Amino acid sequence: MNLMIEVKDIVKTYKLYKKPIDRLKESVLPMKKKYHEDFNALNGISFEINKGDALGILGRNGSGKSTLLKLITGVLSPTSGEIKVNGRMSAILELGAGFNPEYTGRENIYLNGLMIGLQRAEIDIKMNGIIDFADIGSFIDQPVKVYSSGMFARLAFAVAINVDPDILIVDEALAVGDVRFQMKCIEKMKELKANGTTILFVSHATEQVKRFCNRAVWLKDGVIEAIGESSEIVDLYEDYMKYNSSEDDQSRDAEKVESEINEEIETDMIFPNNPNILSMITKVNINGKKFKTFDQVEVEVEYDVYEKVISGLLLGVALYTPDREYIFGPNTHLEKIELPNTRGRHKVKYTIPRLPLLGGTYNIDVGLFNNEGIVCLDYKQEIVGFTIVNKYFSEGLVYINHEWEILQ
Ligand SMILES: Nc1ncnc2c1ncn2[C@@H]1O[C@H](COP(=O)(O)OP(=O)(O)OP(=O)(O)O)[C@@H](O)[C@H]1O
Questions:
Q1: Which residues form a coiled coil (predicted)?
Q2: What is the pTM (predicted TM-score) of this model?
Q3: Cα separation of 120 and 18, whole Å?
Q4: Confidence band (pLDDT; 50, 70, 90) for 263?
Q5: What is the CATH number of domain 279-388?
């Protein structure tokens, strides 16, 4: 095992001032009164990352994720503790960080390359690859202050990803940029991961962490709540968030999933004008609105693929209660079903032969993803629903097979 990052008992204390003037008072009257409160954004963090690990960093807003990444990249220094980094690191922390707004895109590629530790000649060799990857046309010779956030994202990613880093650090940035570009980035990140690059990845999209990372750490109020195998940690975190998410977190989640409820869509395949739409769910049908426990439920999903082919396309069908309790959500990738992924219209039938749910109302979400579920191509929340009505025969959410035995 090759240790790439070692974080030992890190504490990061920020000084919090009630009013801006307090900071000034404290600096001009240094030996007098203390005008600030100490706030530990991180408190006693220790972990190690080995070569080839992809570590997802989870935590609600303000839990200390960005602070941790800034400490690892050296943008900030810890108040106490030690961080050892072994290898060349490239990072996308905040979009535009590390860019000089007055420089052109091309000049900023040099600036970033030099900061990462490349020689000018090495940057020259990589320059065309980076420009091709960013794909922002003639803007590459414009000052970056005129860029849109999408262009920024493209350039920042193109640089960070194409400089052969030993360690790549990505903070949320994937959320910016269009689907096509996200897919390109994920492909490249997978390639880096396969070649042994160590990756640290902060994302509010827990599914991305589950699918892309092998390990994850959950930060809560500046301490490690859990660390380990990514799917386990994501499950723990999601469980916690279900009952403890703030409005802030919820609004982020709502942004993530554009829900289009019970939408009726065209019957003929129409190619969308928007080049970011690569595939779309066009129809979802269910074989009834009212069932009894153990009835067969069939959901037919029709979708269009607008690309010649979408590698790694997957379809997921998820069952929810009206309170958005997640009951069950298989997908074609996990179950090794080869989903048609070439240009044209396709139709898939999902069958639950004996639905074990007890009385109540249930909803179904349908999602199309690519790259083993990392990039969402289309998502229909609560697109169909049904009710289960029975004569009274049991209680609870699901019927679990069981036996009774009278022992005495
Ligand atoms: N420069 C600073 N001065 C004072 N407090 C700060 C400073 N930077 C961050 N903090 C505080 O430290 C805590 C951790 O912040 P941090 O940005 O690391 O959280 P985060 O998990 O990345 O949050 P988000 O998901 O919203 O980006 C927060 O309470 C934040 O308000």
A1: none
A2: 0.71
A3: 46
A4: very low
A5: 2.70.50.60
